[in-house]
């Protein structure tokens, strides 16, 4: 018999994304019994109100995870690489929001609406949450990629400053006030920045390479994906423009209908950040036949990157583990 409540930990609980994880767990009435909140040494002792109680933040160490059923990691790649294995060894399922394990062939990369089935036979403990822009770019293809044979993708992302965490939001506020940026290389209030992440030897950034590697891993395919990721002066919610080429002919009205029926997706005439803010769904519009690909489509998608792009997707994975009876 499954437990009615679970012992849950959150590493990085004081950060922007960590706080959103708490809100998602509360909103979805996740069956939390014990809740332990972790952060770095400098945040130790802070008080956070969650699930109608006041919880004292603890310093995360390799000995912090005994007795926990699920641990959400939201503190970045370094924290996940140094501590996730200890959480897993203690018996907890680890759902990591960083890039630490996304390319690991032994760790599933999960968007529940697309490939939750991969966890049915998985006997490991670490599960990876995809990059926020990858999730919203490819979720609209969930019900059509197999039917029509996906051949290639071109993705352009327009990413809000919340994707950089609180430092990004603070810089946007500073620059709107006429002050100089402290985090971004230019005034983000009056510019776009056509580079997110570290540039690699091929000229693409690591953020752009994620679109290639994660798309192929999630869909279990091997296709070319080219991405350009741009930071824009918006506080929250990413936008993505996608061109998808298929192997088979299609009817564009059938494509629109299938995308509209996809779980987690809603059609909207002009999807925008103000509308998507604090909503769970990926909003998709401008669905049309591509003029670059004979058998291709183009669409624009907007989603709250702190929700479906992070906390919501991770909590949905945890809910799936309960449904699969992986948690008892």
Explain the overall architecture.
With 328 residues, the protein is an alpha/beta fold. It is 29% helix and 24% strand. The chain contains 10 helices and 14 strands. The strands form 3 sheets. It has a 6-stranded parallel β-sheet with strand order 5-2-1-6-7-8, with helices on both faces. Strand 3 and strand 4 form a beta hairpin. Helix 1 (16-27) packs across helix 10 (307-323). The longest helix is centred in the last third of the chain and has 17 residues, at 307-323. The mean pLDDT is 96.
Largest beta-sheet characterization: 6 strands, parallel
* Average pLDDT: 96
What's the total helix number?
Answer: 10
The SS-based structural class is alpha/beta
The radius of gyration is 20 Å
Largest sheet, order of strands side by side? 5-2-1-6-7-8
Low-confidence stretches: none
Percent of residues in helices: 25-40%
Proportion of strand residues: 15-25%
